[in-house]
């Protein structure tokens, strides 16, 4: 972004952007949306006889997949979403193969998984990991859920089988029903058909099993299939 801005409008435009204090959609006093490292690079470029060349050199170094993966991993939770978004705006795609490999070797932090999931080209493997990485609220932690479902990058079975705790999956399904009423959208119907199939295959028509499932739901830590299995196990072990 800085390179394009410099090439099109000159160094003063870059200087003005770095000095700007008010940005639409940001609360007063929220600080500049560009990270400190970008400010440092911009300042050095503005003091350089060939600022764009310096920025290109820095950008090439920042785009190294191994370095970028390490940078994202150590980014704090409060800033990681903005950093991923900033990289995308700068034209730097997340190094997806390296991120998947890194997650396999040593799981990425939950906040990074959720930030990566917001990118439209996030691999399904990482989407599933973000979905199964603990408590999630569709509006706050999961703005990526609706687009991923609409674009079929996540399926009803994914929510039912990967999302946990189980009560969160039920909450998400309720949100899906609100967003896509079953009478208007076949996708919503598929979610509920999958849910019915899953619950009936485990609980059948046993009132005792249904009762145990209902009692387990509020505090059960795992996904729905694990809860349903526990509900149909020996009552003493499921309690």
What does this entry look like structurally?
The chain has 16 helices and no strands. Among the domains are: 1-11 and 64-134, no CATH class; 155-239, no CATH class. The mean pLDDT is 81. The relative contact order is 0.07. Helices cover 65% and strands 0% of the residues.
Please name the defining characteristics of this protein:
239 residues, mainly alpha
Radius of gyration: 23 Å
Low-confidence parts: none
Report the end-to-end length measured between terminal Cα atoms: 57 Å
User: Could you spell the SSE succession in H and E letters?
Assistant: HHHHHHHHHHHHHHHH
Structural class: mainly alpha
**Main pleated-sheet profile:** none
Secondary structure: helix percent: 55-70%
Strand content: under 5%
SS field, number of helical segments: 16
The total beta strand count reads 0
Mean pLDDT: 81
Shape: elongated
Topology:
Blueprint lengths: L1 H8 L1 H9 L16 H11 L4 H12 L2 H10 L2 H13 L6 H10 L4 H8 L6 H8 L13 H6 L5 H7 L3 H14 L6 H18 L3 H10 L7 H8 L3 H4 L1
Helix pairs in contact: 1-2, 2-3, 3-4, 6-8, 8-9, 12-15, 13-15, 14-15
Task: Explain briefly what this protein structure is.
The protein has 239 residues and is mainly alpha-helical. The protein has helices at residues 2-9, 11-19, 36-46, 51-62, 65-74, 77-89, 96-105, 110-117, 124-131, 145-150, 156-162, 166-179, 186-203, 207-216, 224-231, 235-238.
